[in-house]
From TrEMBL:
MF (Gene Ontology): calcium ion binding; calcium-dependent phospholipid binding; phosphatidylserine binding
Protein name in the entry: Annexin
Family to which the UniProt record says this protein belongs: Belongs to the annexin family.
InterPro entries recorded: Annexin, Annexin_repeat, Annexin_repeat_CS, Annexin_sf, AnnexinD_plant
Signal peptide: none
């Protein structure tokens, strides 16, 4: 369930005019921006962007970029984008880092349904004039390249049909590969990148039933390399994304120095989807409300904006 609190009825004209007032003059009205954009869903934000440009012959996103700064600017900018375009931006940022942040690519590839992933790939191509898989292939090598390209190009069956016999045989294939430490076996990549999420859950359950341990735990031995870690992230995203995102938030907040990039990413991308469920998972794991943890670890307008997306009432 979502945490975003948005009105059923709104006026894109009134919102566009109010935002214009917030960015005009000597000082920016950050609270006014948060009050409007922090309470509008993706469809409403799109309407506001269109009307704003019609009224003022100016791109709202570019104006916000010029008026705001730091973590607050990044959070507002990414939130205001269309979801598919936002994921395209997140993917490009992850790819262009000195060391590619493959977790972000795996999240996008494995958490989304097939149509959503296809929309991200289209948005990426429109924005950057080349394909996501092309950039991944250019900036990665070896087994990580094979895995990431396979995951982003997948178009999985999205139904609930399960083949129990197939789940059994593929659980055995995965177990043999892990036992032999053949993590990069082509069959492992094939299974993870082509099977439906429902089928994979059946396979992972069969693996646990047969071997007394989850496949994700078996992947992370003491000497786990980057490829094993990437497989682990993929399996967690495919099998239980809410628990995966809870751990991303926990690591972002509890590490020495907040990882604002990861904190922003999860809250901004999940606020309209399942952030309420992620909040519940966070509380169960940490005995602290997520809002409280975020409030203690952030400050200023950035803090106010994240708390708004988390459902805090003004």
């Amino acid at each position: 369930m979502a945490t975003l609190v948005s009105p059923p009825y709104f006026s894109p004209n009134e919102d566009a005019e109010a935002l214009r007032k917030s960015v005009e003059g000597w000082g920016t009205d950050e609270k006014g921006i948060i009050t409007i954009l922090g309470h509008r869903n993706a469809g409403q934000r799109k309407e506001i962007r269109v009307v704003y440009e019609q009224l003022y012959q100016e791109n709202l996103l570019k104006r916000l970029e010029s008026e705001l700064s730091g973590n607050f600017e990044r959070a507002v900018f990414r939130w205001t984008l269309d979801p598919a375009d936002r994921d395209a931006v997140l993917a490009n940022v992850a790819i262009k880092k000195p060391e590619i942040d493959y977790n972000v690519i795996i999240e996008i590839a494995c958490v989304h349904c097939p149509e959503e992933l296809l929309a991200v790939r289209r948005a990426y191509q429109v924005r950057y004039k080349h394909s996501l898989e092309e950039d991944l292939a250019q900036h990665t090598t070896g087994d990580i390249r094979k895995l990431l390209v396979a995951l982003v190009t997948a178009y999985r069956y999205d139904g609930n049909e399960i083949n129990a016999k197939l789940a059994c045989s593929e659980a055995n294939i995965l177990h043999e590969a892990i036992k032999d430490k053949a993590f990069n076996h082509e069959e492992v990549i094939r299974i993870l990148s082509t099977r439906s999420k429902t089928q994979l859950m059946a396979t992972f359950n069969k693996y646990r039933d047969d071997h007394g341990c989850s496949i994700s735990k078996n992947l992370l031995d003491d000497g786990a390399n980057d490829f094993q870690k990437a497989l682990h992230v993929a399996i967690r995203c495919l099998n239980d994304p809410k628990k995966y995102f809870e751990k991303v938030l926990r690591n972002a907040i509890k590490r020495a120095g907040t990882n604002e990039d990861a904190l922003t990413r999860v809250i901004v991308t999940r606020a309209e989807r399942d952030l309420r469920d992620i909040k519940e998972a966070y509380y169960k794991k940490n005995s602290v409300p997520l809002e409280q943890a975020v409030a203690q670890d952030t400050s200023g307008d950035y803090k106010a904006f994240l708390l708004t997306l988390l459902g805090k009432q003004d």
